[in-house]
């Protein structure tokens, strides 16, 4: 649709023309007779130059009255300026106030995370949040693009369900007209039914887990993408997971350069993750790696690296503090900003230095049969630059629906994809059990009510075939691709333990 105004993102195509912009004030500065307004319109940021001599009195007053996040309209000429972001700025001919904002709570100074989370509805306007949500959008489109291109049918699995999928400890229960019901933990079982109707399907929907722990990877509401393919085995399943992730990384690195720059994402490290095939390790091989000397040496090197970095940063901070006394105003501001950066990094380093010895100890003590914890996954992935796939886990740590390894009955034909750079599990899946009696037995062994699964057993009664699938966690994927330390910044309004508002 043609719009009666121009978007900031389109300005490079309009150099020399007069345009109308609608937006909000991100930041402003000025000197005598000149004001520089940073206008934010959702598509990008541009500097608007207001020259008192060139605009009427009303426009000059309007520009001067704008407070942070006030809405305003500008008519002006687009000029090429290499020093500016996007290579353009706008010379205002007129400025009109649309809505003056009250004093805005989120200022350019540093705020604590809880303060920002309480104002998530406003925090979304900040640059890093803006960039992360745009990457999320690109990832979503890449996922649909991949599956649609491969002939999958998208399906919506029910959110209200009568059965558990992933164990009973994380169920959100509700009263469904006097019958117990649950918010779905996974669309997989319904996806399996749909795969028997369409061959290849994928769900893309919200899933819920009453996770009672606060970690940087757990949400109580998250979006999961679950492909399910009839006549696929574990190896083919791993091929799909790998292709999907490579397609995501390629799309984001191709189309989200400005966003990745705002997020200060190491793009080379990210791009390396599009290199397939990903290493595939059996669980047993992964345990061997975790408990190896190579792991201990790697963690020793990490500890040394952190100590060196801490030393260098502390020195820089001392020098800056000494320079602060004699510095001019602008320079003082730069030093203050750098001090904040240094302190943030020093906190991270301190945390790393607390973690590493614990990781070393727990890695060395890891015993075959246990499930990997977050730190174990971090350590395993530190050995590689791409995601890795770990397969054939002990059946005891996996869900009831997993097929057993015909070569070793202790193992399930499950697989997890672990993202590099410490992000850990982003995909879990595997080949499904096809045998009715075995499945019945598993439902019982997992303490699940058989009656709730009778419909699912029908899939084994009527033309049971080998099939496989997996679930990709969207928020964990966004965290990894954006290089964000915590999943709370990966969804517009994340739901976590203790966080239901806004
Ligand atoms: O490994 P999970 O539990 O697997 C399943 O739910 C299977 N039914 C999927 C399937 O085979 N169709 O979850 C899959 C992925 C995890 O790898 C993780 O990325 C994400 O879902 N996930 C979470 N993300 C955020 N917060 C949580 N609490 C999550 N729990 C799982
Ligand atoms: Mg899992």
Helix-strand blueprint:
Elements: E1 18-31, E2 34-40, E3 45-51, H1 57-65, E4 71-80, E5 88-99, H2 113-118, H3 120-123, H4 127-149, E6 153-155, E7 160-161, E8 173-176, E9 179-183, H5 188-198, E10 200-208, E11 221-230, H6 234-255, H7 257-262, H8 267-272, E12 280-282, H9 283-290, H10 293-324, H11 329-364, H12 374-382, E13 388-394, E14 404-405, E15 408-419, E16 424-431, H13 436-445, H14 454-461, E17 467-473, H15 474-482
Parallel strand pairs: 3-5, 6-10, 12-13
Antiparallel strand pairs: 1-2, 1-4, 2-3, 4-5, 7-9, 8-9, 10-11, 11-17, 13-15, 14-15, 15-16, 16-17
Helix pairs in contact: 4-6, 4-15, 10-11
Magnesium ion is lined by residues 416, 425, 428.
Which CATH architecture of the largest domain would you pick?
2-Layer Sandwich
Instruction: Give helix % range.
Output: 25-40%
Structural class: alpha+beta
Pick out the low-confidence regions: none
Number of strands: 17
Total separate domains: 3
CATH superfamily membership of the largest domain? Bira Bifunctional Protein, Domain 2
Ions, cofactors and other ligands present here are: 4-amino-1,4-dioxobutan-2-aminium adenosine-5'-monophosphate, magnesium ion
């Amino acid at each position: 649709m043609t719009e009666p105004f121009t978007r900031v993102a389109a300005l490079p195509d309009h150099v020399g023309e007069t345009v109308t912009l609608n937006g909000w004030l991100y930041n402003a500065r000025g000197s005598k007779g000149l004001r520089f307004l940073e206008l934010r319109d959702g598509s990008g940021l541009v500097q608007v130059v207001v020259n008192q001599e060139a605009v009427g009195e009303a426009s000059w007053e309007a520009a001067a009255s704008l407070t942070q996040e006030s809405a305003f309209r500008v008519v002006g000429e687009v000029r090429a300026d290499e020093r500016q972001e996007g290579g353009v700025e706008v010379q205002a001919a007129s400025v009109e106030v649309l809505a003056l904002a009250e004093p805005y709570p989120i200022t350019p100074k540093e705020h604590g995370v809880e303060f920002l989370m309480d104002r998530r509805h406003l925090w979304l306007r900040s640059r890093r949040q803006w960039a992360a949500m745009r990457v999320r959008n690109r990832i979503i489109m890449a996922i649909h693009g991949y599956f649609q291109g491969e002939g999958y049918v998208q399906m919506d699995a029910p959110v209200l369900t009568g059965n558990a999928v992933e164990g009973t400890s994380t169920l959100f229960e509700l009263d469904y007209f006097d019958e117990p019901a649950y918010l779905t933990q996974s669309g997989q079982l319904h996806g399996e039914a749909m795969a028997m109707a369409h061959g290849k399907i994928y769900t893309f929907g919200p899933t819920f887990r009453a996770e009672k722990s606060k970690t940087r990877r757990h949400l109580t509401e998250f979006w999961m993408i679950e492909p399910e393919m009839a006549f696929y085995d574990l190896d083919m399943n791993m091929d799909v997971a790998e292709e999907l992730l490579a397609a995501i990384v390629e799309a984001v690195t191709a189309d989200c350069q400005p966003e990745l720059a705002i997020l200060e994402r190491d793009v080379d490290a990210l791009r390396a993750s599009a290199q397939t095939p990903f290493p595939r390790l059996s669980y047993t091989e992964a345990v061997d790696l975790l408990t190896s000397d190579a792991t201990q040496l790697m963690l020793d090197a990490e500890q040394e690296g952190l100590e060196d970095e801490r030393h260098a940063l502390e020195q820089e901070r001392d020098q800056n503090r000494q320079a602060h006394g004699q510095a001019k105003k602008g320079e003082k501001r730069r030093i203050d900003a750098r001090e904040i950066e240094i302190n943030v990094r020093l906190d991270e380093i301190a945390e790393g230095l607390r973690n590493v010895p614990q990781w070393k100890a727990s890695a060395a003590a890891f015993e075959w049969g246990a499930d990997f914890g977050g730190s174990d996954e971090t350590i395993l992935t530190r050995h590689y630059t791409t995601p890795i796939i770990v397969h054939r886990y002990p059946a005891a740590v996996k869900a009831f629906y997993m097929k057993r390894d015909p070569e070793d009955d202790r193992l399930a034909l499950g697989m997890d994809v672990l993202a590099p750079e410490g992000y850990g599990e982003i995909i879990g899946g595997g080949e499904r059990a096809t045998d009715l009696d075995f499945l019945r037995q598993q439902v019982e062994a997992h303490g699940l009510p058989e009656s709730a699964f009778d419909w699912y057993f029908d899939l084994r009664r009527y033309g049971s075939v080998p099939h496989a699938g997996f679930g990709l966690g969207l928020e964990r994927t966004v965290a990894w691709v954006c290089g964000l330390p915590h999943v709370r910044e990966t969804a517009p309004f994340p739901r976590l333990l203790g966080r239901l508002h806004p």
